[in-house]
Amino acid sequence: MPVRMRTALVPFATLPLAACAGRQSALDPQGLQSNQILNTFFVFLSVAAVVWIAVTIVLAVGMLRRKRAADQPLALHQPFERTAGRVVFVLGLATLVIVLGLSIVSYAGQRTVFAKDEHALTLKIIGHQWWWEVRYEDDSPDKSFVTANEIRIPTGQPVKVELESADVIHSFWVPSLTGKMDLITGQKNELQFTAKNAGVYRGQCAEFCGLQHAHMAFAVLALSPDEYGRWRDHENRSANSPTDPLGKQGERLFRARGCALCHTVRGTLAGGQLGPDLTHVGSRTTIAAGTLPRTPATLGAWIADPQHIKPGNFMPKMPLQSDELIAILNYLEQLK
Ligand code: HEC
Ligand SMILES: [Cu+2]
């Protein structure tokens, strides 16, 4: 294709942006904060567009009505100089007013985006290379629990996430609900958001954090308050104990083959801290930080060779016989 034709096609490459909607889009806000961010964005965009169009028009007029070179280019033309001075002054003033106006719009927006609600539901989120630890902490420890890579929240209620990192800097970003915030080692950052509508929103680490950064996603499931309450009660319980022989064998192998060194399954002897909590892994929607949907097939493939699915991640390929793999898979599937 000739270069000129290719260049002419470039603007069309942005067309897919027009379809930005759904699970992960700042242009389709589903939270109070993301709504505010989008409104602020549109105010900035409109003002900038008006200024840009005005400048382009003046430039075009200037070019079309170009005067012939004067006989004495250095001679001053007093009335013209005065008018020009006034125009520059007025435009300078207009720039000042626009910048101040936009600052005010931006500050006003921050009141919503960074609002703090004392009664917010508080979660602690810890970034790991390359997955998310999610801690639901209650005043009474018997109502506190840990999960991973999935955040369930009630709609209509402010949610505060306290962000920390276990290793390098990560960034918490759910564009449909709110803006970004970094997770930094040794520092506590906070972000608050309120989901307006029930739905599943995708979040993504937004700060390059190593090899598998692109596979460090998570799901936010906004549920009705009733549904959320039921989920929380269930999630707070210890893991199901398998009753069938295969499941029992799987539970044994989970410890015997070393899985328990890195993973916790509450209510069992497995108490490892290096990897995601698996107490209710069977009811999560994805595995490996949003890399794959959770099905028996993907879970089996992951246990068989996690390095194939997510090269470089910190779960080693474990040498398992196929019958051992089947037993462990059967066990994990029961951890609903
Ligand atoms: C050396 C520590 C370690 C060992 C041993 C280990 N894992 Fe993992 N596991 C991890 C880490 C770290 C992750 C997160 C990987 C990622 O997503 O980047 C993980 C992720 C997982 C996940 C996905 C969880 C989720 O919600 O995404 C499952 C399931 C799992 N491991 C099962 C097992 C089983 C079964 C074994 C034993 C055969 C095992 N693991 C052994 C560290 C370990
Ligand atoms: Cu990252």
Structure description:
The protein has 336 residues and is α+β, with helices and mostly antiparallel strands. It folds into 2 domains: 24-62 and 77-228, Immunoglobulin-like (Sandwich), CATH 2.60.40; 245-333, Cupredoxins -  blue copper proteins (Immunoglobulin-like). 37% of the residues lie in helices and 18% in strands. The protein contains 8 helices and 12 strands. It has helices at residues 3-9, 32-64, 78-113, 225-236, 245-256, 296-304, 306-309, 322-333; strands at residues 121-128, 131-136, 145-148, 150-154, 159-165, 170-173, 181-183, 189-193, 199-205, 217-223, 286-287, 292-293. Strands 3-2-1-5-8 form a 5-stranded mixed beta sheet. Strands 4-10-9-6-7 form a 5-stranded mixed beta sheet. A two-stranded antiparallel sheet has the order 11-12. It starts with a helix and ends with a helix. The mean pLDDT is 91. Heme C binds next to α6 and α8.
Provide a concise account of the structure shown.
With 336 residues, the chain is α+β, with helices and mostly antiparallel strands. It has helices at residues 3-9, 32-64, 78-113, 225-236, 245-256, 296-304, 306-309, 322-333, and strands at residues 121-128, 131-136, 145-148, 150-154, 159-165, 170-173, 181-183, 189-193, 199-205, 217-223, 286-287, 292-293.
